[in-house]
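Key idea: predict the complex, not the pieces.
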Amino acid sequence: MRLLTERLATDLRDLWTDEDTVEFQIDGARNIEVLRLLKEAPELDFFMLADAAAVDYGPGERFEVVYHLYSSKHPAWLRVRAHLDRGDPIVPTVTGLWEGAMFHEREMYDMMGIVFEGNRDLRRIYMSPDYRSFPQRRDFVLPDDAADSPAAGVNPLERPETWDLARFRDATDTSQPR
Amino acid sequence: MTTIDRDTRIPDPIELDLAEEERLRAAAGLLPVRSAAGEYAGFDQVGLPDRPPQTEREREVYTLEEGEMLVNMGPQHPSTHGVMRLVVKVRGEIIVDIDPVLGYLHRGIEKLCENATYTTVLTYVDPMDYLSTMHNEHAPAIAFEKLYGVEVPKRAEYIRALVVELERVSSHGLMMGFLALDMGGLTPILYAFINRDEIVDIQSAISGQRMLFNFFRVGGVNFDTNDEFLSRLGTWRSRVMKNIEMNERMITDNEIFRGRTIGMGILSGADAISLGVTGPNLRASGVAFDVRKAHPYSIYNELEFDVITQTSGDSYARYLQRIAEIKQSIHLIDQIVDKMPHGPVQAQVPGIIRPKPGRSYAAIESPRGLYSVYAISDGGPNPYRFRMRDPSFISLQAIPKIMPGKLVADTMAVMASFDPVMGGVDK
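Result:
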């Protein structure tokens, strides 16, 4: 904790801990510098990228790319939450630090539409290459015929009359890959 | 006699359809099926995608030089262990590059879980990594317990560790068989399935299911141990070592097996860490990282065990690592049964859980490596975000890294030594 505040004084926000996790938030554009320091500073030594995931906090809010790091010198998982502008979700890639971040980043691009600048292979990984939407965003609505199912009306997704389709169209328009 | 006028070509009906399709695709804002001429080398060769490359890496893989050829392995290849396609660029018998194509089994489990209550999430994650179902339930259960702040009874923790270690024995035992199967040895897989079936019977005695157990609950487990479970466990324990050693004798010193695994697919420890490879594959490369030791969860800090590692990092080391871990797990099961306390197996938890807004991260050691869950609650009955890191998905990245320069026939043998499960890879 003390080490983190010393070394990352300018970048670190909202330091927070629970029983086995230390968490702080950074600006997305600074993720390479922060993660490189965490990985390469000998007294920190967070050498392993345990997980990288994207979180969508909904329209008008923000995206977060969440990195979980492991260090043999510290007893807690380290969670780095990098904030991104939801309208312009671009963040530098960390594949230069961990090659294995490639599949994480391809998945985040596929599911959330986050563009990783400098990634050599930013293709869709699960969906087909001509798919044009990002299914794990909060404003993604399934335009299918779920309303015909026996359980119609139980889930908001199955009540098309409640869908704000104008918003859905706008959302898909702004979410085209660049 | 008719003469063919070569200048006036009658339009091919297929060509017309293609033009129409192009027009429709352009109207729908899709990428063209055919790009401008010269954009894409070797367009009409089998295996090339029907669109221009989207990234630098894709262009690199799908641009062929003289003497190179693309071969599809899968999606229905018998030894891809599920539905996966490897696009293999070969020069004769030598592999030049590999591009894994995933997503054939993608079910959107994360999205499903975000629309399910915390209790029902534990049923949705079962079919992810279908050879280690108990592990799949373990990580979200821990994450949700942290979110909700519920204390799990000691006996429930011991039963969890017991079924989880049983699952590890069955999964690793099956890997031994599959590895031999991919090298043409049919017998070991039959014995491996006999051993697995015994474990499946034990687990069905306690959970009522044979594969998708739905056994874990937030705050405990579904059932306490019963007589059938204990008697089957005892019978299994009395002969498991003999069975494993018999299977081991059949494979370990087999000359063909050794010839096709020793020195194959060598992955160095530094590379493995960089690629995100975890679990037995990482330990076979000499890195002593085991989540059970690094971040003890459940009751693992009360049990005695060491992190086993190998040194060589080849397929054979990965195989030996599995055998060592099977024996270690059996040793752990002995300790768990020995120490198991009495008491309740389920904490008092309401049917629909509404945790306070917050975040939690839980990582466990599954038979394939670090399996973790990152869950966010917004105070409602469903997780706001439910993220799973599946170890075999990330470990797959090692295949394109280590295979170039090797023979095509060894691709599957090396892949089997990583033991990926496509249900987990594709989520």
